[in-house]
Amino acid sequence: EWLANLLDLSLRRLSEEHPSYYGALSRLHLEQQDYAAIAASLGIAKGDVKNLVHRGKLKLASFMRQEIRAYTSARGDYDTELELLGKMLG
Questions:
Q1: Helix count (H) and strand count (E) of the chain?
Q2: For a Cys-Cys bond, which of 17, 24, 31, 84 suits 52, CB 3.0-4.6 Å?
């Protein structure tokens, strides 16, 4: 439940602040479209889609870290939460 909430908050923020990153990520992972299909639907090159996905993943990870930092009170707690998140996500 913790991870689902964290991911939901971060994805919502990504969709609001970087809709192109969110769109590429959601089409790839939620709709299971391949890079070529996404590129065709957006009218951009396949390499551009790969860049959007890569940047989106980086930005999403940053948002998740910011959310964790917002509710942890000590550096040790933050590090522990990040370690737990890493284990949960693989």
A1: 5, 0
A2: 24
Residue listed under structure tokens 């990520």: 25
Q: Which residues of 44-74 are buried (b: 16+ CB within 10 A; e: fewer)?
A: eeeebbeebbeebbebbeebbeebbeeeeee
CA angle 11, 61, 3 (to 5 degrees): 65
- At 29-65, the pLDDT tens digits run 999 999 999 999 999 999 999 999 999 999 999 999 8
pTM for the full model?
Answer: 0.85
Please name which of 71, 86, 49, 64 lies closest in space to residue 7, comparing C-alpha atoms.
64
Nearest alpha carbon to residue 45 among 24, 22, 64, 61? 24
* CA gap 45, 75 in Å, rounded: 42
